[in-house]
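Q: what sequence does this backbone want?
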């Protein structure tokens, strides 16, 4: 009976586990995950590369665990700010501060990225939340060809509206 109670307690603690809560800029975040290249249609219509739209291929971080992104408390009442809370974020589009860091951001690499988060704003932003990368630490170079696009249902819904074409 004690064994059953202990097992129930352990499994219920996993079920109650929450996503890590992080804050939008100016707060720095440190996140780990795998780099994946994704392709979206760009200008002029942002609908179909096959039908003539430009190819917007970029680097994305598939997080180990989903995050919830909230506003820093001092900005919650700032109506001019574009940032809005997002839950269950598993993928981030990357904006890289230092051009030299692009050599470390390769498909398949397992990385630890440090930077600030901001909410999507333009048609060129293909995830709900983006990471302005300030520091890159490569933890391993997997160079995996077929990295599974393991994202949340909320991310899938957003990206389906963005017309994800294919992963590269």
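A:
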């Amino acid at each position: 009976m004690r064994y059953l109670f202990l097992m129930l307690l352990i499994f219920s603690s996993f079920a109650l586990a929450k996503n890590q809560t992080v804050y939008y800029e100016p707060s720095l975040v440190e996140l780990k995950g795998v780099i994946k290249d994704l392709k979206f249609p760009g200008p002029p219509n942002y609908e179909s590369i096959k039908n003539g739209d430009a190819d917007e291929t970029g680097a994305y971080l598939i997080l180990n665990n989903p995050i919830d992104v909230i506003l820093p408390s001092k900005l919650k009442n700032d109506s001019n700010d574009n940032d809005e809370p997002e839950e269950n974020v598993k993928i981030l589009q990357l904006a890289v501060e230092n051009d030299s860091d692009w050599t470390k951001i390769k498909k398949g690499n397992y990385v630890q990225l440090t930077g600030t988060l901001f909410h999507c704003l333009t048609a060129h932003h293909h995830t709900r939340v983006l990471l302005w990368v300030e520091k890159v630490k490569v933890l391993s170079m997997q160079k995996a060809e077929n990295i599974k696009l393991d994202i949340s249902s909320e991310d899938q819904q957003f990206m389906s509206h963005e017309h994800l074409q294919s992963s590269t």
